[in-house]
Design a protein that fits this description.
four-stranded antiparallel sheet, five-stranded antiparallel sheet, Immunoglobulin-like, alpha+beta, 19% strand, 16 helices, 3 domains, 462 residues
Length: 462
Amino acid sequence: MQQHENLQTIPILIEDSEWKVNTGSDKIHAKRVSGYFRTIKRLTATIWLIFFLGPYLRWEDRQAILFDIAGSRFHLFGVTVYPYDLWLLSFVLLFFAMLLVILSVLIGRAFCGYFCFQTVWTDMFSWIEEHLEGPPRIRAALDAAPWGLSKTTRKLTKHSIWLLISMLTGVSFAAWFTDAYQLWIDYFTLEAHISAWIVLILFTSGTYLFAGFMREQVCFWLCPYARIQSVLYDDNTLLPVYDKSRGEPRAKLNRSVENQHVGCIDCDQCLAVCPTGVDIREGEQIGCITCGLCIDACDNVMDKINQPRGLIRYKSLGHKYYQWYRRPQVLVSSVMIIISIIMVSYGLTDITEAELSVSPKRQPVYVLMSDGNVQNTYQLKIFNKSQSDKSYRIEVDGFGKMMVTGNSKPLQVKSGNGANTLVYVKIARDQLSSNISPLTFRITNILGESLPIEVQSVFVSP
């Protein structure tokens, strides 16, 4: 019996047949409500201004942040990252993945409720819809009304603004991959590259469709995060929860009774404001994006009827809430985040202006010369990662007496390009005490603008 009771306390996310999940047959007209969590949503939505404004920042004579796919490089203000430094990307992705895990373990789908582009764009579209067509009840009546001049004008204006925002979204995305100012000129003169037109069409149609027509369906069916949330949740995760012990049984407010203590008055305001149409009073559901709007709606009603707030509030489903530092998922993810920050910081500060690789020729491994010297041949590859053309001097260290050929002239390397050269090293056999001896190859910018770059190699002899 004790075991059965314990099992009942474990929160399990299931899709119950009694849940009223909108499959697309009914359009949800969510009511907009003011409150603490609505304010948070507004503030977090402003982060997406970086998406629209970021491409127009300038650094010296170029775009400050630019994913230059054609040039196989990424400009981040004064730093240029090439494929040689692509390992940095893995740690950046690891950082955001672990941050999402921590967020989900601690406060559920807070990313969905406050940061997700689908949520933000949907909220933007619904705000425009409300200002043009009215509150939810009037919008529903307008949808059911026959077509006339007023309805046609409102609908046409709304969809025109939606399309304009969708197109701006497509242009903004494309602007991260090419010069933003030139991109606008290319679009208006119809001279944009075919890839720019494809991005514009895909993002315009996708944004218009998802934010305008498939709002909650994206959260229910298309987003994979909705399906893995149950793996990340535990009984200590903070979620919007309806207090059934206080709210049930539901009863209408009797204003003739003074100091009446009531729970849920069945006003359905929590359901009316939910962007996915979830009734929080039915328990935790897959459609809940933990945006907290139901809390704002319920608190507003409680204020009006002079009842204490908190009938719906953020709380854990377990009996006790354990601090984050006592939860293994958070600790492990935090360690991974710290490692990612350290590695990315090290990588960005350790990026050199050039990349040098040295490959000894293996056919033959060495050549025994008629004068008693042993010769090894090396292929050097130099990649110029700086923003200007460079000339590099090649030097070899390791032995006091040796002959190096193939490095008499500085090697000219254009910005963002590489160059190959062969270097021949000859050493007298009597100087070699081992069949494998260390060598150091070094390239130096002849203008002395940066520190030398060194690579260790070996000299092979009989």
